[in-house]
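Page 37, continued from 36.
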């Protein structure tokens, strides 16, 4: 994924905008398939609620990737939780 950070607030918020794919460490030209999701955003916000840190994730997606993200994101977020709780 070739993306840019378009907004960042240290220790609070980070947002990415996705532009194209990377394959073999090379940026791929935007084709019709990539054009479907180019410009999609992914946003992360950390807040505190009664001494507990809460990570909120929002993202844009096209219909054909929704099932993928429904299975992949919970696994990824579980790993983030585990890593954040390690001492």
């Amino acid at each position: 994924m070739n993306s840019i950070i378009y907004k960042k607030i240290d220790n609070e918020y980070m947002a990415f905008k996705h532009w194209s794919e990377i394959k073999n460490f090379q940026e791929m030209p935007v084709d019709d398939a990539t054009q479907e999701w180019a410009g999609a955003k992914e946003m992360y916000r950390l807040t505190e609620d009664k001494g507990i840190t809460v990570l909120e994730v929002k993202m844009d997606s096209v219909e054909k990737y929704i099932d993928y993200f429904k299975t992949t994101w919970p696994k990824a977020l579980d790993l983030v939780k585990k890593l954040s709780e390690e001492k």
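The longest strand covers residues 41-49. Flag for discussion at group meeting. The mean pLDDT is 91.
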